[in-house]
Amino acid sequence: MAYWQFKFREDIWNDWYEKSIGDIESWISPKIRGGKPNDISIGDIVFLYRTDKKKDRGIHFVSKVISVNFNDKYPIELKIINDLKENIFKPENFGFHDIIEKINKLNQRSTSYYKFDDEDNPQKLYDFIMNNETGNILAEELNQDEIKNLNEGAKKQIIINAYERSSQARKECLDYYGTKCQVCDFDFEKVYGEIGKDFIHVHHLIELSSIGQNYNINPIEDLRPVCPNCHAMLHKKRPAYNIEEFKNIVLKS
C-alpha cells in the first residue's frame, strides 16, 4: 500500500463541501497536471489537500483508492474514510514541516499529486489523523520534544484531548451522567447488548481558548457523555454547539 497527496481547489472540485465519509469522488484525468500517477493502486491511501485559500489550506479528507482505469474519463475513484473539512488538519501545525515543504517544492509547478516515500513516514501522518475522530493528535502519541514543535493552538488541542481521555475524569463523568447520550438518549448497551456496555464518547464543553496552563478539569461541569453521531454534529460549527442548543435542533428535526 502506498500513500499519496492529491491537491484540489474549489474551482476544480466544486462539490468538495458536500462530501463526507463513505462518499466516492472521481479524480478527473485532465486535471492531473504533470502526467498520470500510473503506479497508484487499489487500496492506496490519498490525503486530499486544499490549496486555494490560505485559511482553508490543509487536509480536508483522507480517502482510499477503490478503482483505477486510465482509459476512463474518470480514472481514479476515491472513497472518503475521514472527513476533516470541519476541523482542517494542517500538517505543519503538528510537526510535519519537512513533509509539507518537500511536497510544495516538488509540486509547485509540475504536478497536482505527490507520492510519499519511506523517508516521509506517511504511516505516522495517517495514524495521527485517523486515531481521533476530529483528526487531532492524541496526547499520548507525542513526546515532549515533539510537543515543543507545535503551535499554541495545537498544544491546547493536545491538552484537551488528554483531559477528555483521562480515565479518572471519564469515570467520574459517567458515574454521574450514565452512559446514555446526553443529546439523543441513545443507549449502546440497550441496543447492542454486552458489546455496547460502557461505550460512549465524552464531549468537552470548554472552548480551547479558555484553557490555561493551570486548568483543572471538573468532570461533572466540563464533560458530557454523547454518542459518536451527536459528538460529530456538535462540532459541525465553530465554536461547537452547546448541548442544550443542539438538543433543540434534534427535537425539531
Basic shape? elongated
Residue runs with pLDDT of under 50 for 5 or more positions: 133-153
Number of strands: 8
Number of helices: 9
- Count of the domains: 2
Mean of all residue-level pLDDT scores: 76
Q: What is the correct CATH architecture of the largest domain?
A: Roll
Keywords summarizing the entry:
253 residues; alpha+beta; ph1033 like fold; six-stranded mixed sheet; two-stranded antiparallel ribbon; 30% helix; elongated
Brief sketch in words of this structure:
The protein is of the alpha+beta class. The chain contains nine helices and eight strands.
Describe the protein.
The protein is α+β, with helices and mostly antiparallel strands. The chain folds into 2 domains: 3-130, ph1033 like fold, CATH 3.10.590.10; 139-252, no CATH class. It is built from 9 helices and 8 strands. It has helices at residues 97-107, 122-130, 144-148, 152-164, 167-177, 188-192, 219-222, 228-234, 243-252, and strands spanning 3-8, 24-27, 45-50, 58-68, 76-83, 113-115, 201-204, 223-226. The strands form 2 sheets. A 6-stranded mixed sheet has the order 2-5-4-3-1-6, covered by helices on one side. Strands 7-8 form a two-stranded antiparallel sheet. The chain is elongated, with a radius of gyration of 20 Å. Residues 133-153 have low confidence and may be disordered.
